[in-house]
Amino acid sequence: MSLSFRQRVGLELQRSLRRTHEQLHPLRTLFWECTLRCNMSCRHCGSDCKVAPAVKDMPAEDFLRVIDTITPHVDPHKTFIIFTGGEALLRDDLEQVGLELYRREYPWGVVTNGFLLDEKRLASLMASGMHSITVSLDGFEEQHNWIRRHPQSFEKATNAIRLLAQTKGILWDVVTCVNPRNYPHLKEFKEYLISLGVPAWRLFSIFPMGRAAGNPELQFSDDQFRGLLDFIKESREENTNALTHSRNNAILDVSYACEGFLGEYEQKVRDHFFFCRSGVEVASIRCDGGISGCTSVRSHMDQGNIYKDDFWEVWQNRFQVMRDRSWARKGQCKDCKVWRYCEGSGLHLYDDNSELLCCHYHRLQH
After folding, report:
1. Of 116, 201, 203, 322, which sits most exposed with the smallest number of CB within 10 A?
2. Distances (CA, A) of 8 to 11, 20, 95, 323, 363
3. Measured between alpha carbons, how far is 178 from 182 in angstroms, rounded to an integer?
């Protein structure tokens, strides 16, 4: 399907903006992979986290030392810190780190499976300055527990969501890994999330990496992928119509994840045009000290390590592989007519040999 004139104009503007951001590379988001420990054994885990991983948790002082080295170079109010894992809430010093970030005036948030988020822990996190939180919920009980491989995971996650719905002063959303098991129930599940009071819902399909590699139970057909995007598009149109006609229906902000160029669906399933910001505006510090774009990018693209290198020097000078994507124009991308807008899709969709695992745009042409 071809792009509309309006989409092409928007994509050209986005392309110009990307060139500017590649040159300036303002650090807007910093992920801290604070632990690889996890209380789940999810079928789709990209990092293949284990209950007792070989890589130990990074000491809090090591992370905060990096924060202090970048503080003279950024506006803390415009640089968001996100704790991720593993399961970040397994760290009992998360509040102390968060409080130190708050004192340095950095906003910060957490990505969690919700298992440990009870009333006491939420109050403790918020007292330490937590700005936002994302909870994973992958469908109704049977579907969610199947992919998370824990019999109490749905109960705990929904309890956490109910708690957040009753809490003021925090930004939060729910994220869902859509797969063939929960795909048929998306409409009913959307209504369920609305009943829980969820304000925003992000959906994404599972790419073949980590435990998901080679698992056909987790992979979409091309028709299912298009169906997912159609569902999101229609949900967003319903919201627009409800707001236009001043209806009192509960509004759930539904969007597709940041990954991949989506052709005709650009700006119809999310608020922005595709732009892989990894290494351009987004950086991460891995549990072992590795410095990368985002935590979903394979470790062979790490550009340094905080135990050997100065983070800011690495950020300023070593991310050309992510800012100049000309190397990715090969294979199915070599003669692609939308290369100028996609530039090889999201970096997390590449394997350890820098080969593209899947192309969303190509799937949508079938």
Report:
1. 116
2. 5, 19, 45, 22, 20
3. 6
CA gap 146, 182 in Å, rounded: 10
Q: Is 289 helix (H, G, I), strand (E, B) or coil?
A: coil
Predicted TM-score (pTM) of this structure = 0.94
Tokens 């300055």 correspond to 129
Query: DSSP string covering 92-105, please?
Result: TTHHHHHHHHHHTT
Q: What is the pLDDT of residues 126-149, one digit of tens each?
A: 999 999 999 999 999 999 999 999
Structure tokens at 247: 């209806």
Distance CA 43, CA 54 (A): 20
And the tokens for 125?
Answer: 């996190």
Pairing between β-strand 130-136 and β-strand 290-292 as defined by DSSP bridges: unpaired
Residue with tokens 């789940």: 40
Q: How far apart are CA 306 and CA 291, in angstroms?
A: 7
- Residue 158 carries which DSSP code? H
Number of Cβ within 10 Å of residue 357's Cβ equals 13
Instruction: Provide the pLDDT for residue 213.
Output: 75
DSSP assignments along 235-289, one per residue? HHHHHHHHHHTT--PPP-EEEE-S-S--GGGTTTSSSS-----BTTTEEEE-TTS
The CA-based diameter of the chain, rounded to the nearest angstrom, is 58
Sheet holding 253-256, edge to edge: 253-256, 200-205, 171-178, 130-136, 108-112, 80-84, 29-33, 282-285, 290-292, 304-305
Which DSSP string do the residues of 186-238 spell out, in sequence order?
Answer: HHHHHHHHHHHT--EEEEEEPPS-GGGTT-GGGPPPHHHHHHHHHHHHHHHHH
What stretch of H or E contains 340?
Answer: helix 339-342
